[in-house]
Amino acid sequence: METRVVVTGMGVVSPNAHGIESFHQALKHGQSGIRLIPALQELNFACCIAGVPKDFEEIGRRYFPENQISRMNGAIGYASVAALDAWKDAGLHLPSDESSADWETGAIVGCGIGDMELIATTIVPVVNSGKVRKLGSRIVEQVMGSGMSARIAGLLGLGNQVTSNSSACSTGTEAIVEAFWRIRSGLAKRMIAGGAEGASPYTWAGFDAMRVLSRKFNDRPQKGSRPMSASAAGFVPGAGAGVLVLEELETALNRKAGIYAEIIGGRVNCGGQRGGGSMTAPNPEGVRRCIADTIADADLSPDEIDAINGHLTATYADPHEIQNWSKALGRGPGCFPYINSTKSMIGHCLGAAGAIETIAALIQLSRGFLHPSLNCEDLHPEIEAFSDHVVQVGMSYPELKTMAKASFGFGDVNSCLILRKWDTQ
Amino acid sequence: MNREEVFHEMVAIIKEYVRDPELLKHVTNHTNIINDLRVNSARLVDIIIKSEDVFHIEINDDDADRIKTLGDAVDVVLSLKRAA
Question: Would the CB atoms of B49 and A67 count as touching at under 8 Å?
Answer without folding.
Answer: no
